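Bench log. Compound arrived from synthesis this morning; before running ITC I wanted a structural hypothesis for how adenosine-5'-triphosphate sits in the protein. Inputs:
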Amino acid sequence: MVLEIKNLTKKYNRHKTGLEDYSITLENGILGLLGPNGAGKSTLMKIISTISKPTQGTLFLDGVDIVKSPGHIRKILGYLPQDFGVYPNLNAYEFLSYIAAMKGVGGKGLNQRIELLLEGVNLMADAKRPIGTYSGGMKQRIGIAQALLNDPKVLIFDEPTVGLDPEERVRFRQLISDLADNCIIILSSHIVSDIETIADEVAVMQGGKLITKGSQPDIIKYAENKVFEVLIAPASLPAFKSKYRVIDTARQIDQVRVRYISDLNAIAPSSAPVKVGLEDAYLFLTQNNP
Ligand SMILES: Nc1ncnc2c1ncn2[C@@H]1O[C@H](COP(=O)(O)OP(=O)(O)OP(=O)(O)O)[C@@H](O)[C@H]1O
Ligand SMILES: [Mg+2]
């Protein structure tokens, strides 16, 4: 599948722009959307899910205009909204059967599919009690399961790992990486390490704009030779912060190890270059584009 998004703009009102002239082309595989609060991640996901209409721009899925023909994507779409709500009185079976009916998924295999999904998100043991009694992470997992009900070819997860414990994060990763070969999967997160372990490609967004998209090594390259570490006295940290863009600090016995962004010719004395990761590159790219 190919999803071509061109010059997408979403204006919520005269003062609020959710997305601005956003263009991106997606193929099968997992795309991670990284961006600070208000970057436009949910806005983009809602428009692809046809929950929201763009103010301007086009979306074509395998050549079909999905703004004009939303039905074309809806039947092959799985979507977990950021503010996913459940019916608290239904148990997991009832809830998934209800969503299946809404999506027009039925047939003989439905019960089996529901069980398979409940196993996939590790909710079989709790499937018969009301969802209202679930923990936050368990509710999130039922949300993940409902997105997969119709065997989707376009899967959109808005902040899917929120509330998941480390074990369930790993399970989620395995569940979706098995699907990525013949499915466009888009997921957003603030947790760079989650994106790092799952995504084939990363799109960095800020202020409704796409800053860059590429493979993880491509994104990391932006920050190469731009991130350094130095040990300084705790008392000099405020002055250091006013001069450099500090990414992280770690207290040592009587010193602070500071990780910061700088051009090579402007680094602080005794600094050493560090091996950069996706988080460094993300911070470098977003802080560079306020
Ligand atoms: N219904 C709405 N009405 C008005 N403005 C909105 C609406 N929804 C989003 N916005 C604005 O659009 C911009 C993008 O919001 P969006 O929810 O897409 O960001 P996000 O990247 O998903 O943020 P977060 O990480 O907090 O989920 C923000 O400035 C937000 O205030
Ligand atoms: Mg959001």
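What the model suggests: Residues 12, 16, 18, 35, 37-43, 82 surround adenosine-5'-triphosphate (ligand 1) (CB under 6 Å). The chain has a mean pLDDT of 94.
ITC booked for Thursday regardless.
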